[in-house]
Amino acid sequence: MLVKSTTRHVHIFTAEIHGSELVPSDKVLTLDIDPDNEFNWSEDALHKVYRQFDDLVESYNGDELSEYNLRRIGSDLEHFIQKLLQTGEISYNLNCRVLNYSMGLPKVENPETEGKYHLV
After folding, report:
1. Phi, psi of 19 (to 5 degrees)
2. What is the pTM assigned to this prediction?
């Protein structure tokens, strides 16, 4: 049975990819990061998300592979991606199909306002 968790920037499936098809699996998780290409990613930032995903999955080792647990992992990854955006490790893709700034307004460097405003 295919179990999934989808947030805006993270899709997790209990499935393997064979060709262009998802084949349900009770032993494999497949992660799709930023399916709408809302962000500009470096290889280092992507690897950080994959490492965070591996750590989160390991922390649930032995727990049921339920939709609830996958949603918790997906939600934690969303927060991790937001942190990467806030620290400048990733940035918004201004050529994205839809710009909605779902993780907060982009930071624009301006010497006159530097240090005066912070995302919360």
Report:
1. 70, -115
2. 0.82
- Provide the pLDDT confidence category of residue 104 given band limits of 50, 70 and 90: confident
Would you say how long the chain is, in residues?
120
Nearest alpha carbon to residue 91 among 75, 80, 74, 103: 103
Can you read off the two tokens belonging to residue 28?
Answer: 């494999």
SS3 call for 71? helix
**Could you state, in order of their start, the residue ranges of all structural domains in the chain?**
4-92
Instruction: Give residue-wise pLDDT tens across range 55-99.
Output: 999 998 888 888 999 999 999 999 999 999 999 999 999 888 877
Rounded (5°) CA angle 90-92-93: 110
